[in-house]
Every structure is written in structure tokens, then in C-alpha cells.
Amino acid sequence: MTRAPKIVLVWKSGDESRLGPFVEDCLRDGVKFIGVVGPNCERVHDLIDEHVVGDGSDGTRFILTSWHTDETLGEALEFAEMLSGEYTGNVEVVEL
Questions:
Q1: 7 CB burial (10 A radius; 0-12, 13-18, 19+)
Q2: Can you tell me the distance from the alpha carbon of 16 to that of 84, in angstroms, rounded to the nearest whole number?
Q3: Which pTM value belongs to this model?
Q4: Which candidate, 20, 37, 49, 52, has a CA 20 to 30 Å from the CA of 58?
Q5: Mean pLDDT in runs of 10 for the chain (96 residues)?
Q6: How many whole angstroms separate alpha carbon 66 and alpha carbon 79?
């Protein structure tokens, strides 16, 4: 399954072991943006960034990220939809 260029990740499970495979799928599919909403979303945002950067040796690995503490899914979607330029495209909601 190919992912949309922009994703709003609804963090529900708390299972951080699911993030690595999810991020790798996003990198493979050319996702340009991941916004995280839900409990502990700031930490999840940081973990995604750490996974994308890895050891820093691969400069082609990049995904713009944001976290949306105390915001609704609708507000996070609105933010994602506003992104333009190289971040133009559809938004997909993913629950993990």
C-alpha cells in the first residue's frame, strides 16, 4: 500500500515498537510530512525524527514532522492541508 505524501498520525496504542516499521514504510513511499496528535505526541514526534535521521550517514532520509499537543484531529488535519510547495498533496490519517 502506498501512503499519501502527508500523514496525520493518531497515536493511541503507546506501542513504540510499531513506529520503526511505520517510518520505514513512509520513507519508502515518499511521505514528506508526518504530524502526530494524541497522548504523548511530542515524544512520538521525537522518536520518528530519531528514526528518520538514524546515524546521520544518509542525507536522503528526511520527513518534516510536527506534534499537536492539545489539538484535535481536525486541527492537525487543517495544519497538514495548509502545507504547500514541496509539501503539496493528499493527507492520510493513520492510527497506531
A1: buried
A2: 30
A3: 0.95
A4: 37
A5: 94 89 97 96 96 92 96 97 97 96
A6: 10
Given the C-alpha cell 502545507, which residue does it identify? Answer: 83
Give the span between the Cα atoms of 67 and 7, in whole angstroms: 12
CA–CA dist 69, 90 (Å, integer): 22
How many residues does the structure list for the chain? 96
DSSP letter (8 states) at residue 60 = T
Q: How far is CA 77 from CA 27, 43, 63, 66, 82, in A?
A: 20, 19, 17, 12, 9
Range of the domain at 47: 6-95
User: For residue 3, what is the DSSP state?
Assistant: P
Query: Where residue 51 sits, what CATH number does that domain have?
Result: 3.40.50
